């Protein structure tokens, strides 16, 4: 190393950058679907339905992808569903989740929608397509100035 260069010391750990956070900001100031998060915070999974054409979308929308109406209403989804498909995440997890691998993720049928979700409390080998699962709302710790939540499912 040359004597005329400054040395840079790297930290042992790096804080998760806000822009790389897997979970979005959930207030009215930050997202048009803040009502989804408000309902989820109260323990209710919901989505939007178009008042004009009746299409139900997940994730919630601010404009209907079928008829382009912005006349959408929030509708409750069941807390219980059925496992449609699943897989094990063994590597390549999103930033901030690297220490949680392996974990199960899947497609869950709830009411009129299929959604992707993490499946907690089960090993891959213990699950089968068609297994009943139930909603698990989790709090998200991280670089935000408000409380955040997200949905997961667990075997029933």
Q: Care to give the gist of this entry?
A:
The chain is mostly beta strands. The chain contains one helix and eight strands, in the order αββββββββ.
Radius of gyration: 20 Å
Q: Taking strands numbered 1, 2, ... along the chain, how are they ordered across the largest sheet?
A: 6-5-4-7-8
CATH topology of the largest domain: OB fold (Dihydrolipoamide Acetyltransferase, E2P)
Helix content: under 10%
* CATH class call of the largest domain: Mainly Beta
Would you give an account of this structure?
The protein is mainly beta and 156 residues long. It folds into two domains: 24-77, no CATH class; 79-156, Beta Barrel (OB fold (Dihydrolipoamide Acetyltransferase, E2P)). Helices cover 5% and strands 35% of the residues. It has one helix and eight strands, in the order αββββββββ. The strands form two sheets. A five-stranded antiparallel beta sheet has the order 6-5-4-7-8, covered by helices on one side. A hairpin with a 7-residue loop joins strand 7 (132-140) and strand 8 (148-155).
Would you spell out the secondary-structure blueprint of this structure?
Blueprint: H1 34-41, E1 46-50, E2 56-57, E3 72-76, E4 80-89, E5 103-110, E6 113-119, E7 132-140, E8 148-155
Antiparallel strand pairs: 1-2, 1-3, 4-5, 4-7, 5-6, 7-8
């Amino acid at each position: 190393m040359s004597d005329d260069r400054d040395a840079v010391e790297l930290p042992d750990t790096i804080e998760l950058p806000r822009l790389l956070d897997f979970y979005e900001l959930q207030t009215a100031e930050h997202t048009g679907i803040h009502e989804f998060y408000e309902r989820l915070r109260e323990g209710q999974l919901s989505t939007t339905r178009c008042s004009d054409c009746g299409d139900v979308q997940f994730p919630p929308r601010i404009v209907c992808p079928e008829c382009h109406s912005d006349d959408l209403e929030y509708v409750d989804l069941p807390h219980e569903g059925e496992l449609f498909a699943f897989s094990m995440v063994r590597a390549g997890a999103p930033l901030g989740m690297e220490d949680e691998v392996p974990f199960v993720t899947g497609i869950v049928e709830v009411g009129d929608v299929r959604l992707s979700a993490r499946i907690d409390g089960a090993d891959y080998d213990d699950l089968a397509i068609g297994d009943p699962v139930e909603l698990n709302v989790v709090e998200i710790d991280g670089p935000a100035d408000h409380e955040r939540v997200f949905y997961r499912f667990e075997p029933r």
